[in-house]
Design goal:
alpha+beta; elongated; 113 residues; single chain
């Protein structure tokens, strides 16, 4: 006996959920970012490749992310897989989702100390 299956949907199979945030922007992983590098420095550095919609430095982890409005901007940045940012050699790669339940990634909050 196999697992119980649901009856067919009356309107037929449903299309997969669209992912608008994925289609509109492209996120890159930045490895080796100095913990003291402000997000603005990241944003300003990558603005030469295309329109940056977000930049964040994970201060306690030594990496960060930059998000481009278009694939073109991301491709331009990826053409230089190692870049000098704030005196550090930074590895630029496609960001890979962890698939975990923790989502979001807020920008708020104060600094710990």
């Amino acid at each position: 006996q196999g697992p119980a299956s649901l009856p067919p949907h009356p309107l037929g199979p449903l299309p997969p959920e669209p992912r608008p945030c994925r289609a509109m922007t492209v996120k890159l992983f930045l490895g080796g970012v100095s913990p003291n590098t402000p997000s603005e420095v990241i944003s300003n550095h990558f603005a030469k490749f295309g329109h940056v919609t977000d930049a964040v430095v994970m201060r306690d982890r030594g990496f960060g992310f930059v998000t481009f409005e278009s694939q073109e901007g991301a491709d331009n940045a990826l053409a230089q897989p190692q870049q000098i940012i704030d005196g550090q050699t930074v590895d630029v790669k496609h960001a890979v989702g962890k698939g975990g339940g923790k989502g979001g990634g807020g920008r708020g909050g104060g600094r710990g100390g």
